[in-house]
Structure formats: structure tokens, C-alpha cells
Design a protein that fits this description.
By secondary structure, the chain is of the alpha+beta class. Helix content is 51%, strand content 13%.
Length: 63
């Protein structure tokens, strides 16, 4: 799959993951914040959409 997202859209997506929410609850800090600082240095300007690509795998069959 492929889409164009701004940095804030990508970070918002990462924060919706249940694993991220569990980490925040267990450790009392948001790990996405550190990633945001690192990505903000190279994602210029911040509100410009960049291409985001992730694989989509399907297992299809009949029973």
C-alpha cells in the first residue's frame, strides 16, 4: 500500500497502535516523541506529504 502523509499524520498513526498505548501506560512516556524529533530534522517542511509505503500481505484460501 502507498499513501502520502505529513509528518503529523504519520506520528498520529503510530500513536494509534495498541502497542504504543501499552508502552505509554507502562513507562509513562511517549516513545513516538523521540522519533518525532529525529524525523523532524529530515522531514522538511513538516507539513509536506511524503510517500509512505508498507507491504500488504494476504493469505487467501478455502476451507
Amino acid at each position: 500500500m502507498e499513501t502520502g502523509w505529513t509528518l503529523d499524520q504519520l506520528l498520529g498513526y503510530l500513536r494509534t497502535w495498541s502497542a504504543t498505548q501499552k508502552f505509554i501506560a507502562a513507562n509513562n512516556f511517549d516513545p513516538v516523541h523521540q522519533l518525532e524529533n529525529e524525523l523532524a530534522q529530515i522531514w522538511q517542511p513538516r507539513d509536506t506529504p511524503q510517500t509512505i509505503v508498507w507491504p500488504l500481505s494476504l493469505r487467501v484460501g478455502r476451507v
